[in-house]
Amino acid sequence: MFSSKSGCRWACYKWKLGTILYMENEKLRIAILVDKGTDIVEFLYKPIDVDFMWRSPFPLYGQGFPETIHGKLGKFIDYYPGGWQECFPNAGRPCEYKGADLGLHGEVATLPWDYEIIESTSKSLEIKFWVRTVRTPFLLKKTLRMESGSPVLEIYEEIINAAGEDMDFLWGHHPAFGEPFIDENCKINIKGAKVEVLPGDGLSLTDLKQTTGTWPMVEGINGKMVDISNVPAPDAKVSDVIFLSELIEGKYEIINKKLSLGFRFEFPENIFKYIWFWRVARGSFGYPWYGRTYNIALEPFSGKAILSQAVKNGYQLTLAPGKTLSAKLSVTAFQI
Among 75, 165, 219, 222, which residue's CB has the most CB atoms within a 10 Å radius? Predict the structure, then answer.
């Protein structure tokens, strides 16, 4: 598709889903679904031709405005391609907020975004994206930037409250990692956190007790301690959602020792105070995974799920009318 020797560049294609935009330099190729949430469905490290992102079993197809079957997973899952989603203004299962019915992980992951090429030279590439939510009065802006020869993607974001009243929200990033990057040779590096293992859904297997602990050790169902920084093997038959809080720093790394390849995500921990850790090793049965998927996700979020519960328990983010919240995030691919 591109020469690997020509510095920064971009390309845009139209197909049945809508617009897919590629950002690329000598180290990285990133594929963005502009008309579906700006999902990053490819994050390829070119020197050894490895894509970090997981692809779900669901095909990519076109869609429209968000819809919700209240209490059900609904449209987010139906159109979930894997990869990396922006989640806003809800996080987790559907809920109601100020009379608005909000679906799984909010609105913006199922909406088309606008974009503009801000800078495009052989030395640097910068693209701005933005979207207005439908059921809530927010404007979300996001700028992605890369430099020639650098394995780093920088992300600059703004949340703007366009309402005439205070607005609450949850905000998160939902990157899911899969094969060939993810396997039992992977280690997750997090400096320190409190661990909370959530209850299962009755359709999943686990080797962990529903308990709390300190990263990375959690009590297993057999009474022995489990090091959850070790990624389970593909056929481990486990499926868990784990909340990490009280983060020592806003950073994590996933390192595949066999590939000598790592993925580092840095984020402001004063905004993204939690990491949601989702791990599935063919241990989730029934809808939607049916025992067929293998992936992990490490997701910086502003709070626990869901927005209605966040407001009750005081862990939501709030903006006054016309006010803005900004954040800078950075992702680095590296070899060891």
Answer: 75
Terminal Cα distance for the chain, rounded: 28
Question: The tokens of 323 are what?
Answer: 């006010």
CA distance 125 to 135: 33
For residue range 128-145, what is the model confidence (pLDDT) as tens digits?
Answer: 999 999 999 999 999 999
Residue 196: CB atoms within 10 Å: 18
Structure tokens at 112: 């088309």
Please give the radius of gyration of the chain, using alpha carbons only, rounded to the nearest integer.
19
Q: Quick one: CA torsion of 93, 136, 331, 228, rounded to 10 degrees?
A: -20
**CA nearest to 106, candidates 143, 144, 139, 66:** 66
For residues 243 and 169, give the distance between their C-alpha atoms in angstroms, rounded to a whole number. Answer: 18
Burial 123-147 (b: 16+ CB within 10 A, else e): ebbbbbbbbbbebbbbebbbbbbbb
Phi and psi angles of residue 104, each rounded to the nearest 5 degrees, phi first: -55, 125
d(CA 12, CA 21): 4
What residues have CB less than 8 Å from 239, skipping those under 6 apart?
200, 204, 205, 206, 279, 280, 281, 283, 284, 289
Work out the burial of residue 245: count CB atoms within 10 Å of its CB; fewer than 13 is exposed, 13-18 middle, 19 or more buried: middle
pLDDT tens digit sequence for 86-108: 999 999 999 999 999 999 999 99
Domain boundaries in the chain? 12-171+327-336, 185-301
Alpha carbon distances (Å) from 93 to 68, 99, 105, 182, 245: 10, 16, 7, 26, 19
Per residue in 163-212, pLDDT (tens digit) is 999 999 999 999 999 999 999 999 999 999 999 999 988 789 999 999 99
CATH architecture of 12-171+327-336: Distorted Sandwich (2.70)
Token readout for 90 is 């809800």
Residue 296 CA to residue 104 CA, distance in Å, equals 19
